Amino acid sequence: MTTATPTAATGTPLSTGAALLTLMKLRTFIALFAVILFFSIFAPNFLSTANMILMSKHATQNAFLAIGMTFVIITGGIDLSVGSIVGLCGMIAGGLIMYGVALPLGYTVYFNVIEVAIIVAIVGIAIGAINGLLITRLNVAPFIATLGTLYVARGMALLYSDGQTLPNLTGREDLGNQGFAYLGSGSIFGLPVSVWILIVVALGAAYFARFVPLGRHIFAVGGNERASRMSGIRVNRVKMFVYMFSGFCAAIVGLIISSELMASHPATGTNLELNAIAAAVLGGTSMSGGRGTIGGTIIGAFVIGILSDGLVMMGVSSFWQMVIKGLVIIVAVVVDQAQRRLQQRVTLMQMAKAG
Questions:
Q1: Where, by residue number, does the polypeptide cross the bilayer (predicted)?
Q2: What is the pLDDT of residues 266-311, one digit of tens each?
Q3: Which residues contact 64 (CB under 8 A, 6 or more apart)?
């Protein structure tokens, strides 16, 4: 008597399905290895120390936005406003350093760099809170709410300086606001300061997602919002948090970019939301919600950052870069959907085999 091997509806053996599922789960690592190998061969000086440091800075910017975007997408939402928040927060940081805050009776208050960073972070959180209120209280779809905020924040950034750049953000010794450059250009033990900040934020986010009740509620809401609400989870509170955290991450990027350039421009951050979405999805975050990891998102951000810098080094047109990034998002979503279907098939086959 012959015993048949359990197969899916397509006839895929259990062992083959499990192997394919493992490859899909490792797709981010495979993609990272592939882009590094490709550009190390075809891009000149790709593996030089200076270029690796530069790429780490660019990838860090993507990673900050992608961490916030990951939490948002896990809840089943989307945040299109992060790029504009980057630009607005960068302009506010530049304005606080150059002009301070004018008070009545002709007084002007200037802030040191730490105070500037705190104020800018509060602005980012506040914009995120506005997104959260639109979505939770007014029942506006996340796509529409954050699209509107995208335009409002970008317009405010342009109005802040009438579309002009705020240059030479060196500060003045007598005002106590020098040292802004250290955030974007300084280094500790050979690594940029921004990378160390990313390590702290990423570790904190990963711990929060796994061990803090509110972090676990994020996954529950994305998996089944109705069941979460019926089980006593404060769904609106969870959604408010993820959009506020996303705004906070965008504020950090605005500070870092302005600090690195020592200038603030209202167009800073344009299209960075696409990088953040691509990094999160490529890192395994499901667009349907309920699934994602911070570690995968960080690797996805480095894939997107290396891909962008490598294409620039090869002289690829910026127009083609947009095409390629779009294709990356499409492929990542298709693979994610294929992984979900394959996971269901493998689970069914395992149940059939056990039975």
A1: 29-47, 59-78, 85-103, 109-133, 140-160, 180-209, 240-257, 318-335
A2: 999 998 998 999 899 888 898 888 889 999 999 999 999 998 889 8
A3: 198, 201, 249, 250, 252, 253, 256
Q: Where are the beta strands (DSSP E) in the chain?
A: 101-102, 108-109, 187-188, 191-192
Residue 4 lies in a domain: no
What is the residue range of 75's domain? 46-343
Residue 248: inside a domain: yes
**Per residue in 74-109, pLDDT tens?**
999 999 999 999 999 999 999 999 999 988 888 889
Span 129-147, pLDDT tens digits: 999 999 999 999 999 999 9
Q: What are phi and psi of 13, to 5 degrees?
A: -60, 155
Sort 24 into a burial class: Cβ within 10 Å, 0-12 / 13-18 / 19+.
Answer: middle
In sign, the C-alpha dihedral spanning 261, 266, 272, 273 is positive
| Mean predicted confidence (pLDDT) in 24-35 | 83
Task: Check which CATH number belongs to the domain holding 155 and give it.
Answer: 1.10.3470
Burial 56-73 (b: 16+ CB within 10 A, else e): bbbbbbbbbbbbbbbbbb
The answer to whether residue 151 is domain-embedded is yes
CB atoms within 10 A of CB 125: 18
How would you classify the pairing of strands 191-192 and 101-102?
Answer: unpaired
